[in-house]
């Protein structure tokens, strides 16, 4: 869709005598006070001629550009709002904050919740990975991280603030008064914007070839192919803070303007010569001609630069390639710092995947630059440079640097897998999906793989935008429907989803056990009442069980589920009830109370983990059952025994301190303003009013579960297991309250069982184990002595045959695998030797074959398998299990294989 001409014909333009013209290059309409202009002043229709303009030369840093922007709109009635993290954790469909409007989608933009202020202004750090491969090549047009200055107005049907004319007027005032740009240089290019499920007409504000802002008028919701008018009309503007700084400084590239002295510091740290500023300025001026989607335009651009400067193309290529790679490292290290500073944990999934992708792309670029430097040192320089404004970088510096160091170690391991990757690809054509699969499964960068394969005479085609393609595949999460996780049959969901919400008595009194209610819907085993104390499964907590009492009968409730706000009781058997009929219900209190303890304990442990390990800890999953609870947290390293012990101590300290546990409801906008987005640790509720749970002076988090009213009621917590279940995810399992006693009892049983096996008492088991360890160590020493004795007389204990020009050595049957390996290693140290060991395993013969380096074992293994064996081997070792045959028959098969001469 695109707006019609009337959408853009503003009173402002007519009153200020702007004319609507069509760009002679791109044919896009634009408005300008300059009646002679025939160009939209945007790339690729124009070069970056702002670099040669004297107008607007104010030399603003990024900090100054941000302050000037915010202060201007504050003076014009907008309240300054603090930015959100670069990780969009208030959104379940998006991993990264890609624009300032993302802060207000979907609940504010849809009218469900009020904005934090109206109108408002914000400078929001954003991360976009879509164009990651273009960073540096276009000299600042593309960045992975940037600040979007946005002034926003939310116009309600009953409260209208301002719309298109005022928005354009604000832009004119800011650019002419604050940036000292003559009005006749401003151009408002007609455009259309879509994002986050919304759409509307927009103007791109261009000056001297550079787009400085986009003014969006959000007025539609996109539903499939339909554009449905929104109840709200939203002013959504995006001013490029870094571009404002570049425009005022007119430095050779945007990177000079953004990073100031840090740019030269990076060149020095990397040990690379700096690039001629005049060459960079010419390259930047002509950079609008680069279309990264058409790689040939990069070379054409460099040829034009060479011609303009009077340099040879080879020199220009070398200089601009080096510059682009340093710019990439500069840009990426800032983005890495911001991601990690806001809590990203590198991993193989979700937001962690995007963080790892950028870290590995940076390491790959450093390798292409042929420099040996710790990435953490470069990231630390970004922390120092930006820490004054982004204080989370300084606060979380230790974690940021530790995580980067760990990722660099892992990357070295990845490069060690290159040889095996080449072997797997060398005999077939390599396609895009092969490269993505190798990157996803093993982390191998395709360009480095390509270089290694090229050195071996194998050529592969690598897409120029490989990392952008991969990033796009992983930048968003699938959106789940409200009832996706229910265990109810689809036909039951359809019949109950539109019923009136069930009154939740378990929130009125979480200790309530019995109630009376009326039947709303009776569907055999599925019962809906107008009210209930039964908690439905959700938030990792199992649904309640208990009993329904009706017509003198007691019917078991085996589970409780929820569809939207309708609670469904699953009965043990079918019953027939009439609508409006009254019933009594009672929950299984012991079961519920144990889950309340475990659920509240989860909040206690999560807060303890964040305090102990760092702000990067985030809930990645949880489950609360009567028997135990588990909490999955994001963390980059395995937990030490001391950390586990400390977590447990912190949790029990809070329990012993008898802290009140208070649930309360609050508007989500107010909740975010007061407590931040960490309230969404357990998920993002789909409501304007959300339920928070506060543990006094410890934790505040959104949660719909049932909890004890005081931490003392948890009774105690014991962590029973800690596992690293996947890259970047640690699973904690624990028990609370009376379940600790059951856990202790099971441990006692295990200890007593071990004591019986060790023929001692449970009280003496420690000393008995110590004695066994001593005896075992002596036995190991004795075994080592016997092995040495055997190996010294090895030639006397083996059968040797000459088969052609090969020495066939047959070991006696050994029951010591370590001795067998050492014997094979010794006997095959020379050339022309094959060693065979034949052992007995469950009535079958296991044949191990070792060869010297000049003989390949494959043919012998093949002959054994032809005779009914199962196994395999390559190189100098093979192992085959023979289903039938004798020792002599096996040796005969080996001899025949050798005689054929194909070994």
TrEMBL record:
Residues 755-789 form a coiled coil. NCBIfam families: A-tRNA_syn_arch, alaS. Residues 60-746 form the Alanyl-transfer RNA synthetases family profile domain. It comes from Metallosphaera hakonensis JCM 8857 = DSM 7519. Belongs to the class-II aminoacyl-tRNA synthetase family. Binds 1 zinc ion per subunit. Its main location: cytoplasm. One of its GO terms (cellular component) is cytoplasm. Consists of three domains; the N-terminal catalytic domain, the editing domain and the C-terminal C-Ala domain. The editing domain removes incorrectly charged amino acids, while the C-Ala domain, along with tRNA(Ala), serves as a bridge to cooperatively bring together the editing and aminoacylation centers thus stimulating deacylation of misacylated tRNAs. The gene is alaS. Pfam families: tRNA-synt_2c (PF01411), tRNA_SAD (PF07973). This is Alanine--tRNA ligase. PANTHER family: ALANINE--TRNA LIGASE, CYTOPLASMIC, ALANYL-TRNA SYNTHETASE. Gene3D superfamilies: 2.40.30.130, 3.30.54.20, Bira Bifunctional Protein, Domain 2 (3.30.930.10), Threonyl-trna Synthetase, Chain A, domain 2 (3.30.980.10). Zn(2+) binds at residues 599, 603, 703, 707. It is found in: Cytoplasm. Its cofactor is Zn(2+). InterPro entries: aa-tRNA-synth_II/BPL/LPL (IPR045864), Ala-tRNA-lgiase_IIc (IPR002318), Ala-tRNA-ligase_IIc_anticod-bd (IPR018162), Ala-tRNA-synth_IIc_core (IPR018165), Ala-tRNA-synth_IIc_N (IPR018164), Ala-tRNA_lgiase_arc (IPR022429), Ala-tRNA_ligase (IPR050058), Thr/Ala-tRNA-synth_IIc_edit (IPR018163). Catalyzes the attachment of alanine to tRNA(Ala) in a two-step reaction: alanine is first activated by ATP to form Ala-AMP and then transferred to the acceptor end of tRNA(Ala). Also edits incorrectly charged Ser-tRNA(Ala) and Gly-tRNA(Ala) via its editing domain. Its EC number is 6.1.1.7. Keywords: Aminoacyl-tRNA synthetase, ATP-binding, Coiled coil, Cytoplasm, Ligase, Metal-binding, Nucleotide-binding, Protein biosynthesis, RNA-binding, tRNA-binding, Zinc. GO terms for molecular function: alanine-tRNA ligase activity; aminoacyl-tRNA deacylase activity; ATP binding; tRNA binding; zinc ion binding. PROSITE patterns: AA_TRNA_LIGASE_II_ALA.
